[in-house]
What does this fold into?
Amino acid sequence: MQQIRTVTTTVPSVDHLGPMRGRQLADRDLDLAKLTEAGYVLASTHTIAGEERVTFVDTLTREDPTA
It folds into this structure.
């Protein structure tokens, strides 16, 4: 059986919040790295752009290790 996980990250897209955006993107990278270390593979990434924010929805999958 396949396991599916999603990571949702919302970051500001306005210039004056650049440092916050950088931290949030670094946190996203860390979250994705932890899941890939646990055997997950990135299946897709979708972005949803708003006026002041961008949301990333990452979907990761892995085969159930107990199956």
